[in-house]
Amino acid sequence: MIYVLTITLLALAILTIVTLIKIQGSSPIFWILVPLLIFNIGFTWIVMYDLKGWPVDIMPPNESVFYNSILSKPDIYVVAKPKDADDPRFYVIPFTEENAEQVKRAGQMKERGQIVIIKQERDNFKAEVFDHTVENKKD
Q1: Contact at 8 Å (CB) between 76 and 92?
Q2: For labeling, which of 8, 9, 42, 63 is most exposed (least CB within 10 Å)?
Q3: Number of CB atoms found within 10 A of residue 106's CB
Q4: pTM for the predicted model, two decimal places
Q5: 105: buried, middle or exposed (CB in 10 Å: 19+, 13-18, 0-12)?
């Protein structure tokens, strides 16, 4: 994905520069290519920032598996794997006393060897031990 984005940005930049040299800014194509180039550069900036591995500034999705956390005011960093994802993701949530207490509790459960599932309650972090009997009920 990043290679395609880099190649298209480079091609668009070269095309824009060549076009600007040829038409000297008097054609409507100039007014189409310049905003496209600016948009593509901005989009590249956003994608590159997201691909660096910085934490996502949202609560982990409901039913995510909790792996670890870092409590560092003014934020709490949580590593969790969403239910349908292949890999864990790094999340940042606001530091509140309730969130800090729940994250500490989740860390303690994890240290005891329990699988910890994240259950959201609005904008509050909540963790529970995974109940395998719910998933495997025999009828």
Answers
A1: yes
A2: 42
A3: 25
A4: 0.60
A5: middle
Tell me: do 69 and 39 sit in the same domain. Answer: no
Angle formed by the axes of helices 2-23 and 28-51, nearest 10°: 160
Q: Match 């598996």 to its residue by tokens.
A: 65
Quick one: average pLDDT of 86-97?
89
**92 in the same domain as 131:** yes
CA distance 112 to 25: 68
Residue 56 lies in a domain: no
Do 71 and 113 meet the contact criterion of CB atoms below 8 Å apart? Answer: no
Give per-residue pLDDT as tens, 116-128: 998 877 677 777 7
Question: What is the number of structural domains in the chain?
Answer: 2
Kindly list the distances between the CA atom of residue 86 and the CA atoms of 60, 89, 117, in Å, as whole numbers in the listed order.
15, 10, 16
